[in-house]
Amino acid sequence: MPVVDGITFLQRGVFVSDTATLVIADLHVGRDEASSVTLPLGERADLVDRLGGLLAETEPETVVFAGDVLHRFDGVTQQARGTVGALVDTCRDADARTVFVRGNHDTVLGELRDDVEPAYVVADAPRTVVCHGHEIPETRADRYVVGHDHPAITVEGQRHPCFLELSDAYRGADVLMLPAFSRLAPGVTVNDARDGDFQSPLVDGLADARPVVYDGEDGATLRFPPLSKFRRLL
């Protein structure tokens, strides 16, 4: 697992080595209930199994859910409640504490958790702050780790969830955008994306954004040129 600036890229998540913290975003629990599309093994089994795999791989002390834990705005169903509980239990069984960061979909997450925060400081050097990315953060940072827009990239006809690295993107701070942990969230394909296609106020332009893809088959991190150059190679 290559480590870049204290960050290890994983399958739809990152590990901050200095503080042994696993960060995932955009689980959108309840998406399968709100859609005619379901995963073959069911949403809960899929999320819990993949989270369990990351926990076994990294053995974190802390797991940060970086917003949009829930999908529905209007309430928490029993199924969604059970799924969130199963995710927390999976972390507890791995001796990892949980931190919940509020996303724009998490209007009713407070019905499940009384510890939901707008942001979480995950490391001090560089000062790394996890927030969802849907609004301007109040906490200053050298680097923001966000979700919200669900970036993906198409390579040779195959669509892959991807990370986006943006240097000096917001008030001099770097921004690292995570792909959605949910496999039901389509998101934005970055190949032909323009600045207005991303909703996060932390992303002011995409020309210098560098896509990063984690290849789960061989554990390799594939780093692409900035989008301004990458598009000319297509």
UniProtKB/TrEMBL annotation:
Q: Where in this chain does the record put each Calcineurin-like phosphoesterase domain?
A: 22-113
Which PANTHER family does this entry report, sorted A to Z?
BLR1149 PROTEIN
Q: What is this protein called?
A: Metallophosphoesterase
InterPro entries to which the protein is assigned, alphabetical? Calcineurin-like_PHP, Metallo-depent_PP-like, Pesterase_MJ0037-like
Q: Which GO terms describe its molecular function?
A: hydrolase activity
Annotated coiled-coil positions are none
> Which Pfam families does the record match to this protein?
Metallophos (PF00149)
Enumerate the SUPFAM superfamilies for this protein.
Metallo-dependent phosphatases (SSF56300)
